Amino acid sequence: MPALIPSAPSLEALPQLIKAWALELGFADAGIASLQLGEDLDHLRRWLDEGMHGGMAFMRRDLHLREHPAQLRPGTLSVICARLDYRPHAESALRVLEQPDRAYISRYALGRDYHRLMRARLLKLGKRIEEAIGPHGYRVLTDSAPALEKALARNAHLGWIGKNTLLLNRHAGSWFFLGEIYTDLALPPDPEPAVENRCGSCVACIKICPTQAIVGPYRLDARRCISYLTIEHHGSIPEELRPMIGNRIFGCDDCQLVCPWNRYAGLTQEPDFAPRHRLDSAKLIELFAWDETEWLAKTEGMALRRAGYLRWLRNLAVALGNSPSSPETIAALQARAHHTDDTVREHVQWALRRLVQTP
Prior knowledge:
By secondary structure, this protein is α+β, with helices and mostly antiparallel strands. The protein has helices spanning 14-24, 38-49, 58-61, 63-67, 69-72, 93-97, 114-133, 149-155, 204-208, 226-232, 242-245, 254-257, 284-288, 292-298, 308-321, 327-334, 342-355; strands spanning 29-33, 78-85, 104-105, 138-141, 160-161, 167-168, 176-183, 214-216, 219-220, 248-250. Among the domains are: 14-90 and 110-183, no CATH class; 283-359, no CATH class. The chain has a four-stranded antiparallel β-sheet, with helices on both faces. A two-stranded parallel ribbon has the order 3-10. Strands 5-6 form a two-stranded antiparallel ribbon. A hairpin with a 2-residue loop joins strand 8 and strand 9 (219-220).
């Protein structure tokens, strides 16, 4: 362990200072996580064995890195977890979902890609710790490496894992991002009792899921999850699930929108999370008309890039197939009916069959 510099705070005092510095940097909260993850790993293994990870083979491949933080970042003795609220000032999510000619994009993806902003702030926090205590080895993560992120955040007392499998906080709901600093400092975890699970008997998230992807409390089948299907899944979306996707073209927030704890979630003051290009209420036809050059220009620096342009078209074709039939919608789909990509073409033709009356 690196020697403390003169007048540096003790390791015992450092967690409270880290929390204060995190707040100064714009984080909503921070804490030190216990690395006891046994039950979480057992849960993950059962989930993998049941095939609920779908095509995300990396979940099984990197299991050992999730199990042993010191393998992910050699020398790791502690994990600092931080929370950054993101609920944007945007058109009402429920209002957009009620208008089938509009495109619903998960609220986290409307503005700048959070990975860059979170990473920059975590690096600043790491440097602030160095200024106080001297050089130490660390690595910052934000959904960017194999880590049991929600379990670590729960261990750091940032919330509890809800029945929808998201981390919930009684003061902020679930509209926040998580990030970590893996460090070789032996920081003491918060001695206070773990945050109480306050889901109680509520099953609102299970009932609301459009595709019934939440197959039971704390059990999410990614193969049915709209977020997985529209972002992570390559190739054809199962035909029986397409009508249930509605107008959701990138992600899904239904289990958050219905969660009672999200009534306490405030709006973010971070300008980078503000919606770009009116994507909080854009029309499906308008977005379907973007060519790849326009899509690349308008999604620069955004999480929307993760899906890629072809999956963007695929998802929009599904949403258009679920929208009211109109001459404009049919014409937009017919313009791409012979697209060179097999998957795009298949979904466009599916949408046309739903909208065009056959004799």
